[in-house]
Amino acid sequence: MILPRDKEFAGIAILIAAAIVVSGLLGFYVESLTITPGSTTTVTSSTQSNVVNLDVVPDYGGSGYDAFVLAANLNGAVPTPGSNTTAPGTNDNNITVSSGTLVTFVLTSIDTAVLQNFSGLVATPFTVYNDTASGVISSQYKVGQSVTTMQMGHTFTISKLGVNVPIPPDTIVSFGLTFSTPGVYMYNCLTPCGPGMGIAGYMNGYIIVK
Ligand SMILES: [Cu+2]
């Protein structure tokens, strides 16, 4: 039998328990928002590999919310661009790699949109497969090569390291990077491709170099 006074204690106990749960959730939420390049914050990651397969999926998180999605997170499913009308949810596209090891990035874009042109000198050599703009199956772009008005839908950019690789529409782009210094490096897309641009997990992610 619960006496009135016991009820009061039980009520207080429930309130305290609820406060602990809420503060715990809040702490987790805040932590997930405060990851900055170079910080020592622990970032969980789905992938640790010398080959990183990353897909560029238009409208992955709702209209306009394009995203870098780890191929492993798609579980073999082929996403249908433009059909996703749900609000953005969690998309873990953080990548863990080892320092001092060549990491091959394979970026597959199924986005056909042309948003900008890339002009400039190539800093990171890359290969474009299905290069429809040039009409050939694969094109290699070498360091120092001058590129003018190359159509692109997105970029893969690591500002901290001077990496800026254009991603032409409906192509596969491959390049190698060796990270010499452990740390957390933000990668993102610089083209104005929609509301997913600044959102971690969409056109924005982190590479954890160990
Ligand atoms: Cu983009």
Description:
With 210 residues, the chain is mainly beta. It has two domains: 1-34; 43-209, Immunoglobulin-like (Sandwich). It has one helix spanning 4-33, and strands at 47-48, 51-57, 67-70, 95-97, 102-109, 116-121, 126-131, 136-141, 146-152, 154-158, 163-167, 172-178, 183-188, 204-209. The strands form four sheets. The chain has a six-stranded mixed sheet with strand order 3-2-5-12-7-8, with no helix packed on it. Strands 1-4-14-13 form a four-stranded mixed sheet, with no helix packed on it. A two-stranded antiparallel sheet has the order 6-9. Strand 10 and strand 11 form a beta hairpin. The protein starts with a helix and ends with a strand. The structure holds copper (II) ion (CU). The site of copper (II) ion has 6 residues, from loops. Residues 66, 154, 189, 191, 193, 203 line the site of copper (II) ion (CU).
Bound molecules: copper (II) ion
Strand order of the largest sheet: 3-2-5-12-7-8
Mean pLDDT: 79
The gyration radius over C-alpha positions equals 22 Å
H/E element order: HEEEEEEEEEEEEEE
Shape: globular
How many separate domains?
A: 2
